[in-house]
Design brief:
The chain is of the alpha/beta class. Helices cover 32% and strands 18% of the residues. It has a 9-stranded mixed beta sheet with strand order 2-3-7-4-6-5-9-10-11, sandwiched between helices. The chain has a 4-stranded parallel beta sheet with strand order 12-15-13-14.
């Protein structure tokens, strides 16, 4: 059931959360599938509905700094500076967890991924529920993340009692994940806050690749995948002319050489990376639903939000190759 975020709908959503059920709700990044982060049984419903591996931790959403302090064991000085600058917003911090967070939420890790979302519906839901909410993206595991309520209903609607419709997501790619478990800080996933802004605030930040056991959500190498095969190319000109009519092309910005394709999706006519990031997942969904045999994508500039766009495209390309050996 999709509902506008009226007072009655928010009251019902909060009751569902407190009662151990799940609710889909909007954030500035993507739509989340939320449950009480302090209730292990409720969190298990998320894994069940998404068919999500139990070794992939969840992000916990807090309503503000006071609630975040209940979830983590401590908030060191760099974390406080980051929170003051980027919360509410698309930055997730990985810190030692407190005892109120069950192991299923953190995949057995002693750390927790936490953020404060920058969306009025999300914040009011958390406030009304009175508890932090664990919420990955509201889609089947590994598939393209939802940026509208309709996307959620299309894929999970029959399994979710309530979807709060807050309109299209403003940022459109998931949050940046930064680990503060050691020094220097480590970027686990690029996202809505660019790496350059993090370094400007706290100094050195090293990059991390995905490991065998994810330390944070979104680190699995195969993720965000459409059903159609997606291939990354350096430029539109790299796709053979004979293959273009049966294929779609995804571009971050216009390219006059993008001729002969069955369809061309340009994420931003102005080449604006924020606009491109916000449009990415919706564009992938449109192309995936088309009559194309294959999707080609040209990465964005590897800087700022382009780094997050390219991260999602690389994972989508790996995920569309079929099951791992």
């Amino acid at each position: 059931m999709i509902a506008a975020p009226t007072a009655d709908a928010l009251r019902r959503a909060a009751d569902l959360i407190r009662g151990g059920d799940v609710v889909a709700f909007p954030t500035e990044t993507v739509y989340g599938l939320g449950a009480d982060a302090t209730n292990a049984t409720a969190a298990a419903r998320i894994f069940e509905i998404k068919a999500r591996p139990s070794f992939d931790p969840l992000i916990v959403h807090a309503g503000g700094l006071d609630m975040a302090l209940r979830v983590v064991r401590s908030l060191p000085a760099p974390a406080r500076r980051l929170a003051a600058r980027f919360w509410p917003g698309p930055l997730t911090l990985v810190l030692p967890k407190s005892d109120i967070v069950p192991d299923i939420v953190t995949a057995g890790l002693p750390s927790v991924a936490i953020r404060v979302p920058d969306h009025p519906v999300a914040l009011e839901l958390i406030e009304r529920a009175g508890t932090p909410i664990a919420a990955p993206s509201a889609n089947p595991f590994g598939y393209v993340s939802p940026t509208t309520a309709a996307h959620v209903a299309e894929q999970l609607g029959e399994r979710i009692p309530l979807i709060l419709d807050g309109g299209p997501c403003r940022v459109g790619v998931e949050s940046t994940i930064l680990s503060l478990l050691g020094e220097p800080a480590q970027l686990l996933r690029p996202g809505g806050v660019p790496l350059e802004e993090l370094r400007a605030l706290i100094g050195e930040v090293k990059l991390a690749g995905p490991g065998d056991q994810p330390l944070a959500p979104g680190q699995l190498p195969r993720h965000y995948a459409p059903r159609r095969r997606l291939t990354l190319v350096d430029a539109a000109a790299a796709v053979p002319a004979r293959e273009r009519a049966a294929a779609a092309l995804l571009l971050a910005s216009p390219d006059p050489r993008a001729l002969g394709f069955g369809r061309v999706e340009v994420l931003s006519a102005r080449g604006d990376l924020r606009e491109a990031a916000a449009a990415l997942f919706a564009a992938l969904r449109r192309l995936d639903g088309g009559p194309f045999e294959r999707i080609y994508a040209v990465p964005a500039e590897e800087a700022g939000l382009g780094r997050a766009i390219n991260d999602r495209l690389r994972r989508a390309a790996r995920g569309s190759e079929g099951p791992a050996e």
